Amino acid sequence: MDNLLFLKECENDLKQRFEELDDIAFYNQEKVLKAFANNNIALRHFYGSTGYGYDDTGKYVLNETYAEIFGSEAAIVSPLITCGTHALNLALTSVLRPNDLILAITGSPYDTIIECIKGRDGEDVGSLKDFGVKFEQIELNDDKIDEELTLTKIKQLKPKLVYIQRSRGYGWRKPVSVDDMELIISKIKELDKDCFIFVDNCYGEFVEKREPSQVGADLVVGSLCKNPGGGIVPTGGYIAGTKRAIDLVEKRLTAPSVGFEVGSYEIGYRLYFQGLFMAPSLVKNVIKGAYLIGRVMEKLGYEVLPSSKERSFDIVKSVKFNTQEELIKFVQLVQSISPVDANAMPEPWDMPGYDDKVIMAAGTFVQGASIELSCDSPIRKPYVAYFQGGLTYEHIKLLASKLLDVYGK
Ligand SMILES: *Cc1c(COP(=O)(O)O)cnc(C)c1O
Question: pTM of the full predicted structure?
């Protein structure tokens, strides 16, 4: 069958998913627009500053706009936060003190965070462990938070911080929905209202109508090279949360005496506002594209997560392959259809922060930005490609067509 006809069929199969996504994006677009109006966003907020960055109104207004959209008391959004891992490490080190305990309730945190928490054997790397912070983890049970065990451990161990990872990371598991977070957070807060609820929100922003900060999370953390950057923010991270938590983050980001009063960025903030404005629609297209890729691979006989029958709570699509070679071929195909470095050939390598070799396709305008068409995977069993992003739906559809050429015949 003609590729376009085949893809039309796939799109028809996904009609219900696409309608749900249109509804969410419409809601979130209005939410963002209202926040812009309420914060009186004007051209003058786009200009940057130099040196100490006192009176840099753009940076404060950007924080407040994020806080409104995330339904949080406060937020810090900054190009001085270099990536998601940095933002997560910053948030953890801001609120944790010696002898405190982290209780992770969604299994292992993302690969690059593990060393930040657990350190390295026999070496002082300035990890949380090196500062005397302890760590315990509870596995997901059938992709759900184990409520009973979580509440038992909260009573027993009195953790200072409960760690939730919304997206799947490099695990064959479903993301955690905000509804599920709401349930567990309210129960944890009943037992200990002072326990910090921490959410790694990477890949989750604007996927649903509510963010974790709207259901009681104290620290919600993500990267601007992903969803909220709208595909055009050059670098940065954000942390949204309660005033109690964000005050501590400010002091840790710079210094206890000066907090967020200092910090400049001469290039300015236009792209930060513009990217945020475009994010709901971009995220919608990215998820539609991920469903299309997933549907094509399903029809070709591969297992994908989430399946076309399930709602998605992050932007990622996992595709399971039988062999390492098949997986590598898929990643290379993504690279070959990228607007930048299309002729580069990705290979598995020892990336900083990862234990296994990792292969990544990212022929992106912003280096490594995974809200752009990209695919990455640690080389370990099961052989799963984690696919996400795409600045336009048509670009992702072109990949789907290419997949039909390669895997369909
Ligand atoms: C991408 C990601 C991170 C790390 O972000 P970087 O910007 O790559 O450092 C952390 N957690 C999750 C769930 C992610 O998807």
Answer: 0.97
